[in-house]
Every structure is written in C-alpha cells, then in structure tokens.
Amino acid sequence: MTQQAQYVPALGRPELTGAYDLVVSLATRERRWRAALLAALAPRDGETIVDIGCGTGSQAIAIKRARPGARVVGIDPDPAVLAIAEAKAERAGVSIEWILGLGDRADTLVGRGVADAVISSLVLHQCDEPVKGEILKAMARLARPGARVLIADYGRQRGLMRLLFRMVQAVDGFERTEFNAIGALPGLMRASGLTAVTERDRFATPTGSISIYTTRAG
User: Running DSSP on this structure, what letter comes out for residue 214?
Assistant: First the structure.
C-alpha cells in the first residue's frame, strides 16, 4: 500500500472512523437505500462490479452475498476503513478484492473498460466540485460501453430535508456539500461522459434525502 493524497475521512475526523457503521445506520436509514441500490444494480454472476469509495464495505458485501459468482472490487483511499471492510467480509464469508486508492484513479487501478457496473455511495458529497467530476470521469472510463453506473448520495434537498442536511454540511463542509444540495450532481454526471441519468429513488432520512441515480457509460 502506498501513501495516498488527502481525502475526507468517513465521518470527517479519523478518530471517528470506528463509529462509522453505527452512525450511518442511525442517521441515514441505511437498510432502505442500500437495499434499493442493490435492487437497481441487479448484479449478475460473472460480472465485474466496482465500488468506488467502498468505505467499510457494506454495499460490496451485500452485492457479493447476492451474487457469489460476480467479481466485486472495492476501492477506497482510507486504510482504516478498508481494514474494517476486510474484517467484515471475512466474517461474512465472502471474497472481495480490496484496493487502496483514490476514486479519481479507479480506472488506472482496475483497468479501463473492464467493469460491467460501477457504483458509489455517500462519497461525492464529501468531495470538492473538481474532484467529484474527476471521480465521475474515472467511473465512466472504468466501465464498459453501456455499462451500468449507479450512485447513492445526498442529492437535491427539498423542504425539511434542506434543514436536516445542515448536519451533514457541518461535518463535511458547506462548500463541498452545497453542490449536491442544490441538485447539481446529475448535470455533472452528464458532463463527465455518463448518459441517461435518472433519479430512480429518493429516501428521506434524519440527515437529509438520499437519492439513487442510475446512468450509463457512454
């Protein structure tokens, strides 16, 4: 493993990483949107599926459990969360390829045009706008032409959700998160080479609404 460039830790501070799974479960109604993301992905045996910013591995493990015959790859720049992910996968009895690396280099780490599907969850809202774009471009390069690309993240915040989302902004930074809150993410997906962008689902949570976007590699 090599030294990584700066990134935002899972809960904004490295010392809070151990509490990430508990906080996400309580603060985002995680089971609902993760189940919806898995259903939208509809993984198949034999596919290569890459999870960008996989964190503690919850979604990658769910995918591998659903389709043991799929190749599942998880990429994250934080060695602490990858250690948690590895331990969770071992307890679950599933084999996943874990790669230490930044999302905007995903295609160089795994290979261009090799993924049948690429996903990302709760990552882009933490990133500065230029980094969001670079990650999305890397996802497009990583995917085969026409491959599925799915993103679960805080999207446009409406009504009460706008107020609740302030909690996330306090942790992850107003400038980074406001881009998502005003609904700008789908436009950036299109500008990054992704097509047929659709907001498939939207879930109200105690920290704002989480959207599931489906799109395709060009």
Answer: E
Structure tokens at 164: 């609740």
Whole-angstrom Cα Rg for the chain = 16
Please name the amino acid found at residue 214: T
**What residues pair up with 194 in beta bridges, in sequence order?**
217
Sketch out the chain's domains with CATH numbers. 14-216 (3.40.50.150)
Strands annotated E in 13-83: 48-52, 71-76
What CA–CA distance (Å, rounded) separates 105 from 108? 5
Residues 5 and 7: their CA atoms lie apart, in Å, by 6
Q: What is the largest CA-CA distance in the chain?
A: 44
pLDDT in tens, 103-137: 999 999 999 999 999 999 999 999 999 999 999 99
Q: How far apart are the first and last CA of the chain?
A: 32
Structure tokens at 159: 């009504």
Nearest to 64 by CA among 92, 29, 36, 40: 92
Q: Which amino acid is at 128?
A: D
Q: Which residues lie closer than 8 Å to 71 by C-beta, 6 or more apart?
A: 47, 48, 49, 97
Amino acid (1-letter code) at residue 75: I
pTM for the full model? 0.91
User: Could you give the CA distance from residue 181 to residue 162 in angstroms, rounded to a whole number?
Assistant: 7
